[in-house]
Amino acid sequence: MKKTMIAVVMTGAVLGAAVAPVLAAEFRLPAFETVKLPNGLTVYLMERHEVPLISVRAVVKAGAVNDAAQPGLSNLTGDALLLGTRARNKKAIDEAFDFRGARLAGGAGAESSTVQANFARKDAAALLPLFAEIVQQPSFDDAELAKLRERKVIGLKQAKEAPRNVVGTYYRAMLFGNAPYGIPASGTVGSVSALKQADVQRYYGQFYRPDNAAIVVVGDFQKDEMRRQIESLFGAWKATGPAPQQQDNGKVQADKARVWLVNKPDAIETTFLIGGAGIARNDADYVPLQVLNTILGGRFTSWLNDELRVNSGLTYGASSQFSVLSQTGTFAISSFTASVKTGDALALAHKTYQRLWDKGIDKATLDSAKAYVKGQFPPRYETGEQLAGLLGDMYASDVGREQIDNFTRDVDSLTPERAKALVNKHFPRNNLQTVLIGKAADIRDVAKKYGDVTELEIGTDGFQPVAK
């Protein structure tokens, strides 16, 4: 996750540095229709006739938070949907999509699972029924499932070789403890190795049901006709047993400053995250906080990147991010540095972060960030696939369209005074939580400066401290 975060920040920053910010037109979410079928299935239909393409996705409100004692089960189930149906094996499905130049993908995250397809309008008659079959009639072929499980176990073993792949997982485990939000989405080597076909079938039957799902269709179609097709293809999908109940997925634990020191004996650098509680995806301050975070660590010219990379040369990249969930979220400053420079990098990261309170954000800096964000936001929702992803996210996280439609207003109305209030409200200042992954013998004394230290071994399976 860390590697992806830095790549996004750096890519967007380079683009932002290459051209001067331009005034962006007001952005509003295109019109769409929401339909509720008798079986409880939610359907979103958005016509877009610019190109002859259709993007469709099924979104199920089930993810790692529902894995309980079997971490990785939602992830395995989400990917296993593509292994074949009762009528077609994996090879037949792959060939049907590949032959038409279409794309099919699936997977699961912390709170939702998705199956998505993108294809030409002319292929809708062939591929839309196949998509419906994949969602509703997976076979979970045992032989294919075994191969998928083995690939995931190998990936989990390899992931810890690169700390930036797993630092975010340790961070969430630290912040949420044993609460559902602390469950690693990909599972652990032990938990995934133990998963069986019966576990996947049970999980699918419990959570993949029409009253816990949405179908999103965006693209070149006629709304009335597409609604009839979706009703025909998904109307007979039935739910059995009681519907999943909403659960409390946990709150960030930050009653005191803590440090998790994850020992990687062969490390020559330290990867770190510093932060605490953040916001939920549907928080009313979501948009203005994107502007403020841009200043701190959301672009190449951010304070953090300037200080830790450009001015001091302590790292090749530094960033910050609000990672949002449906009920809450986290905030983190992230970077990495040579082991011998860990103390300097952490001290400078803390000093730079403290600027939010010591100096605040002046109007010129705020105006620059506002222009940058307004230039970056609309291109994220240009294609049918992007818009389908947004609608799916809105469904999974209970986000109203007003957050999107009021984007320009919320950015433009941000003043230095309002920025100060938002900093005080949402950026964690006290009892900061820190994850360090590196050679413990080299950085143990540094770690003690930032809170109560708990040491873990990166070679131990899982992401929680081992009980003694």
From TrEMBL:
<keyword id="KW-0732">Signal</keyword>
<feature type="domain" description="Peptidase M16 C-terminal">
    <location>
        <begin position="197"/>
        <end position="371"/>
    </location>
</feature>
<dbReference type="InterPro" id="IPR011249">
    <property type="entry name" value="Metalloenz_LuxS/M16"/>
</dbReference>
<dbReference type="InterPro" id="IPR007863">
    <property type="entry name" value="Peptidase_M16_C"/>
</dbReference>
<dbReference type="Pfam" id="PF00675">
    <property type="entry name" value="Peptidase_M16"/>
</dbReference>
<dbReference type="GO" id="GO:0046872">
    <property type="term" value="F:metal ion binding"/>
</dbReference>
<feature type="signal peptide">
    <location>
        <begin position="1"/>
        <end position="24"/>
    </location>
</feature>
<dbReference type="InterPro" id="IPR011765">
    <property type="entry name" value="Pept_M16_N"/>
</dbReference>
<dbReference type="InterPro" id="IPR050361">
    <property type="entry name" value="MPP/UQCRC_Complex"/>
</dbReference>
<dbReference type="Pfam" id="PF05193">
    <property type="entry name" value="Peptidase_M16_C"/>
</dbReference>
<protein>
    <submittedName>
        <fullName>Peptidase M16 inactive domain protein</fullName>
    </submittedName>
</protein>
<feature type="domain" description="Peptidase M16 N-terminal">
    <location>
        <begin position="50"/>
        <end position="182"/>
    </location>
</feature>
